[in-house]
UniProtKB/TrEMBL annotation:
Stated name of the protein: AraC family transcriptional regulator
Source lineage: Bacteria, Bacillati, Actinomycetota, Actinomycetes, Propionibacteriales
Domain of life of the organism encoding this protein: Bacteria
Pfam families: Cupin_2, HTH_18
Record's keyword annotation contains DNA-binding: yes
Organism annotation: Kribbella jiaozuonensis
Keywords: DNA-binding, Transcription, Transcription regulation
Length: 269
């Protein structure tokens, strides 16, 4: 097999294996899919002969796994070893991506980890669920293995930190849609007061202020780098009206949008 492989590719693969020590031929994807459940629709206690890796996309779920119980929210990854009894108790209705992976019971994965603000793990899970090519699936599984091992070695992320990270991701994705903090809290399966407490402790600000900071950043970018009318900018950034946009811009910068735009264009000339 190696004789027919181009020397450059063989050397690259061998170098990666020696440098990381993390690529294992024993990993094999047995199945992948999507599961959704309505509120109160629990998944009963069960076990598998392989690892089960679950990425939670939506909802708030209580997950007994062996002798432990975990609270899963969007961005949580639960990794259950073979022959370990586990279940899902649906508190809000939920959706997940799941993978069945053939690997040693002692494979050094964490039992629980959280996605980052860029949704890196979620993207890999989604790709593995969609992909049908065996070679590409093997590459994606190797990437996931690397990232999960890195997560196992990293300092633990608390549930509160993960909630804040997930809320910030929602702000970035949906700031232009008239997003409300009540909606974000409901999507995360937490009360508004709980979300506010997590932001205050971890970010020193409120969720509403964090959302407005995202809108303001995008609005200022449009004002300074485009000739879009103010009404269009307000529509694109989640402000109710030009006056609403103007009020926030002036409060943050001391100048109305028109003055900022005039200054920017004057500097360019």
């Amino acid at each position: 097999m190696h004789e027919s492989m181009p020397a450059s590719i063989r050397r690259t693969r061998e170098t990666m294996q020696k440098a990381t020590g993390l690529m294992h031929k024993s990993l094999r994807l047995l199945g992948a899919g999507v599961h959704t459940a309505a509120p109160g629709k629990d998944y009963p206690l069960h076990a598998h002969t392989s690892w089960e890796l679950v990425y939670y996309v939506r909802g708030r779920i209580t997950c007994p796994v062996g002798e432990e119980t975990y609270a899963a929210t969007p961005g949580t990854v639960l990794l259950t070893p073979p022959s370990t009894w586990h279940a899902e108790q649906s508190r809000t209705g939920y959706a997940n991506r799941f993978l069945q992976v053939d690997a040693a019971t002692t494979h050094p994965w964490p039992r629980l980890c959280y996605d980052d603000a860029d949704h890196t793990l979620g993207r890999v899970f989604d790709a593995l669920v969609r992909e049908n090519n065996d070679d590409l699936r093997a590459l994606l599984l190797s990437e996931l293995d690397l990232r999960l091992r890195r997560a196992a070695a990293a300092p633990p992320t608390t549930p509160a930190e993960q909630l804040v990270i997930e809320a910030e991701r929602i702000f970035e994705e949906r700031f232009a849609s008239g997003l409300r903090i009540a909606t974000v809290a409901a999507d995360l399966g937490i009360s508004q007061s709980g979300l506010r407490a997590a932001f205050t402790r971890l970010r020193g600000t409120s969720p509403q202020a964090a959302l407005q900071a995202v809108r303001l950043r995008h609005a200022l970018s449009h004002i300074r780098n485009s000739t879009l009318p103010l009404q269009a900018i307000a529509d694109l950034t989640g402000y109710h009206s030009v006056s609403h946009l103007t009020r926030h811009i002036k409060a943050a910068t001391g100048s109305p949008p028109g003055a900022l735009r005039s200054t920017e264009f004057a500097l360019e000339q």
